[in-house]
Design a protein that fits this description.
three-stranded antiparallel beta sheet; alpha+beta; about 20% strand; five-stranded antiparallel beta sheet; globular; about 40% helix
């Protein structure tokens, strides 16, 4: 997962820059784990309010928000609605337009009429009206880490966010990882040397696509730190307006022991072939809000780039799919039975927020434990 860049914690001294690592389990780790546990089956908005309150417990608010981001990546949120929220709002507004609504009783009458037509209670209808908003999503599952695991996951996420501002990466490692080596071959500016002890140098240019840069560095380092011996040295210009380039070094024998990659979901390995020219810059399927969040830009900027590029997508309500891929995905989803199967399939297509894609194709979930065995179905 990528830590929001505004939550980076670092210190700089005499040309050296370092992420601020948590070095021992702190009380805030246990507190935030408990907050997420207590908010199962509650709305994201309620969870966010309590997380905000935790910022006043004496810890750096950036650390609190950063830890919460790690826990969010281990959480599953779902919109709950008996009828599509857009349809619910349309019916309510149409009903209200037929008469003057100037009091609570008149509003209640409108809601009762719409609820009765749809076989709902007024409470259920009101819960439906804005169920598509992020704060209205329910926390339906939370993969709880230990405080020690959370500490290491946070340290790694904080480091990756800072490394997105790198101008040069020098990585040395021992051991063999075919996937990593194929990955490095696809990077034009990467120079790889050595056999048993490899040295990799990657030259980078400043970029505004920090989320994309962080994801690529994460993909590399998540493999590197799993090797028995490694060392990283990098030049970092953070923030970008800062004139001085600083150095950062870390290795497996030192602070590297404070890091861990969160692998809460099973890893899907996809064979990497030779680079192919992409017909679509962002691929055949993308969740706009998720992509914008990962790249550190707004959804409007993503949509503007797509429009300027001239790519044609089918809009499924925040999920964009090429017409050719739409038919393929629709056909393949019909062959899947469980949430785990759908997750593996969609992750292989490069989808991060696979739940949003399932919902956009009209699928619902019959929850069970373990989560991956939950049944998916389409009404």
């Amino acid at each position: 997962m990528n830590l929001p860049f505004e939550h980076i914690r670092m210190y700089r001294r005499q040309g050296v820059i370092k992420p601020v690592f948590i070095r021992e389990p702190l009380g805030i780790l246990d507190t935030l784990i408990a907050v997420f546990k207590d908010h199962r089956e509650k709305k994201r908005g309620q969870l966010n309010e309590v997380v905000s309150d935790c910022e006043h417990l004496g810890y750096d608010f950036r650390m609190v928000r950063g830890i919460a981001s790690v826990l969010e990546s281990r959480s599953l949120f779902q919109s709950r609605s008996s009828i599509p929220p857009l349809d619910a709002r349309r019916q309510v507004f149409t009903e209200a337009a037929a008469s003057v609504v100037a009091s609570k009783n008149e509003r209640l009458r409108v809601l009762e009429a719409v609820a009765e037509r749809n076989g709902l209670t007024v409470e259920m209808l009101e819960d439906n009206l804005y169920a598509d908003l992020e704060d209205e999503q329910y926390l339906v599952d939370f993969n709880e880490p230990s405080n020690e695991e959370l500490m290491r996951y946070y340290n790694y996420a904080n480091m990756i966010a800072l490394l997105a501002y790198s101008l040069r990466l020098e990585i040395r490692y021992s051991g063999s990882d075919e996937y990593l080596e194929n990955l490095l071959k696809r990077i034009k500016t990467a120079e790889v040397s050595g056999t048993n002890r490899k040295k990799v140098v990657i030259e980078l240019k400043p970029t505004r696509r920090l989320g994309q840069r962080a994801s690529r560095i994460d993909e590399i380092l998540s493999r590197v730190i799993a090797l028995p011996e490694w060392r990283l040295k990098t030049n970092i210009k953070y923030p970008q307006r800062y004139k001085t380039v600083c150095t950062f070094e870390i290795d497996s024998g030192g602070d590297g022991k404070l890091l861990a990659v969160d692998r809460s979901d099973p890893e899907t390995i996809i064979e990497i072939g030779l680079p192919k020219k992409k017909l679509y810059k962002y691929g055949d399927i993308l969740v706009v809000d998720d992509l914008a969040r990962r790249q550190g830009v707004t959804a409007a900027q993503i949509l503007k780039e797509i429009s300027e590029e001239g790519s044609k997508y089918i809009d499924l309500g925040g999920v964009l799919v090429s017409s050719k891929k739409h038919q393929e995905i629709e056909a393949n989803l019909k062959t899947l039975n469980t949430l785990g199967e759908a997750q593996t399939y969609l992750r292989a297509l490069g989808v991060g927020d696979f739940m949003a894609v399932l919902e956009s194709f009209g699928y619902q979930i019959e929850w069970s434990k373990p989560r991956r065995n939950s049944k998916i179905y389409r009404l």
